[in-house]
Amino acid sequence: MIVSLKGKLADVADNTVVIDVGGIGYEVIVTGAVLRSLPPLGRELQLYTYLHVRDDAMLLYGFSSREERNLFHEIIGITGIGPKTAVAILSNIGPLEFIRAVQERQLSILTSLPGIGKKNGRAHFAGAKRQIQGWGGLGRRGGRRFAVGAGGRHFR
User: Fold this and answer.
1) How many CB atoms lie within 10 A of CB 16?
2) Radius of gyration of the chain from its Cα atoms, rounded to whole angstroms
3) Positive or negative CA dihedral for 10, 20, 89, 116?
4) 4-63 has which CATH code?
5) Residues of each domain in the chain carrying CATH 2.40.50.140
6) Does pLDDT of 45 surpass 50?
7) What does pTM read for this prediction?
8) Where in the chain is the domain with CATH 1.10.150.20?
9) CATH homologous superfamily of domain 66-146?
10) What is the DSSP pairing of strand 140-141 with strand 144-145?
11) Segments of 101-148 assigned E as strands
């Protein structure tokens, strides 16, 4: 598993970045939080990553913090939600807002997210409340404290 990358930012396109690590360029699909905080091209960048292996591809997903990556893991564990939808969710709603919406079953918020339709929104999140019980509430998981940054979209 590739859990992080540290190297020079070589390229940026739509929702991907290329990080040059020792002469090897890694294309990484990133969240909006990463895109909003990128350094200039050629400067050093560290991302926390998740390697998704499929029959036809190996895809790297990148996050601004371990906590953002951990929430991504929780989201892709929800039945019917894959990595692409999870990145779209994290790019369109703050982590704590998402956790609150799931725990309080705020379907109007959840079904407004990319990849979550009104018809299947209820099915996606029916069991998710128990699944991410430790996220939100007091804002703790594993002893770490979540802090909401600009726009409610960052962990600390």
Assistant:
1) 16
2) 16
3) positive
4) 2.40.50.140
5) 4-63
6) yes
7) 0.79
8) 66-146
9) 5' to 3' exonuclease, C-terminal subdomain (1.10.150.20)
10) antiparallel
11) 140-141, 144-145
Length of the chain: 156
Place of tokens 């962990």: 155
Distance CA 10, CA 26 (A): 9
103: enclosing H helix or E strand: helix 95-103
Question: Where is 51: in which H helix or E strand?
Answer: strand 44-53
**Euclidean distance between CA atoms 139 and 5, whole angstroms:** 27
Scanning the structure block, which residue is given the tokens 């959840």?
110
**Cα(37)–Cα(106) distance, integer angstroms:** 29
Work out the percent of the chain whose per-residue pLDDT is above 90.
53
CA distance 117 to 42: 39
Residues 6+ apart with CB under 8 A from 45: 6, 7, 8, 9, 17, 19, 38, 39
Q: Do residues 135 and 99 lie in contact, with contact meaning Cβ atoms separated by under 8 Å?
A: yes
Question: 128 pLDDT band (50/70/90 cuts)?
Answer: low
| Greater model confidence, 152 or 128 | 128
Over residues 90-95, the mean pLDDT reads 90
Looking up tokens 């909006």 gives 32
Q: Rounded CA gap, 17 and 39, in Å?
A: 11
